[in-house]
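Section handout 9: paired folding examples.
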Amino acid sequence: MSRRDAYLDAAMRRFVDHGYVGTSMDMLVADVGGSKATLYRHFPTKADLVRGLMERVASTIGSEEYDAAESTASLEEELTAIGRRACSGVWSESAAAVLRLTLGEYNRFPELARTVWESGPTRTYANFHAFVAERERRGEVDVDDPQIAAEQFLGGIVGHQQLKIAFGLAEPPTEDETEARVREAVRGFVLRYGVEAPVA
């Protein structure tokens, strides 16, 4: 494990146990070792630690930049992959912990919300927009508003379940339940936005 990942793991544990305010950089150095200079090289502020945690969740979801034109998967296959990644990331304990932290500290540190949003959902939506634009170029879909389409598709899968998990009211859905959610979301997207192939 890299020193950077070790700091992120320690930050997650400390944020869960002590909250944002109650966690100090000294605690993380004590947990991981090294020096404060080393920690500050990776994460100059606690907000940067939260950004790092969210970026790690986002990489699971598939929020890193990608080239939509490179995909050789069918429309349904690509949507299914996007949906599965969203579930894997958003329903993870890390994502739940970051959401709880952000909501709990919003009044004192509203900038955390922007950090989390820009490190995760903003990238996810940008990638979905790129996906839609490419599939429109291929003549597979006709989408009036890519943002609405993205919110309907992704929100329809993770939706309230994300909040229930973060609030401790539910466990993440099983693999079968996840597949059912993704399958219905893909079906709904294709029915709403798919373009039928011309009859030869």
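Moving on to protein 2 of 2.
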Amino acid sequence: MQIVESPSEMQSYALGFRSGGRSIALVPTMGFLHAAHLSLLRLARERADIVVVSVFVNPTQFGPGEDFDNYPRAFERDAEVCRKAGADILFHPSADTMYANDHSVVVEETSLSRTLCGLSRPEHFAGVTTVVAKLFNIVQPHVAVFGAKDAQQARVIQRMTRDLNFPIEIIVAPTVREEDGLAMSSRNALLTPPQRAEASRIRQALLSAKALIDQGERDPEIIRRHVLGHLNESPELEIDYVDIVDGERLRPVERIDALTLIAVAVRIGDTRLIDNIMPACDAFPDSSRQSST
């Protein structure tokens, strides 16, 4: 496995792979890798000749007062994880090489990013789309793999890929969970043991909502109040939102159906966690660049 720090060097490698007829899969991460990242890497390995994992804590997707400085980092461990998992290249640029001092171009999605996390983090998704567009141009992938835990991010990236005509297949892989159901996240490492125990309520609340839907309830407001009530039982959880939306367009629904997404964001101390469920299948459907969203 090669570790590449220079964007221009990474792009040169990528163009060489392409000219030689080799396909490339990109797994974009912010590092502190865990089992969920490895599931993305394995999927990428199945889909391409060359697997590139990027590790870059992107400063432009963090707003004022957010946890950029405290975001967990462990590059040497990440490199060993990637090496053992069979990655071909670990792309690890610095902020200085990714963004010029006078950078002034932003890639912004203006519909899907305005709901859910976009309401409380108004600068976040412009940072995400900008850095992912840059990674697409640098790594030149045929396939890029994202996780379903970040459902809104996945939809925003799919929309950007479609609207900007990136010739890239976007794969969204199912959420990987801890034994108690908590969605795996690098931020889980920031939780104290008592906070970690309380965080399991997020999944419990979502599964409780699914049970009501399985029993025939279709009123989104009843389901929303049910999830809120479950989460409010814990004084440790500060709720950012509980929203029930169309899983494609991320807009509120009047009646729950097969494409409905229940999305939750909470804070536990200084740590923000997100999770979601599509009650019809408890999964996030794969979608490629041909998606109509």
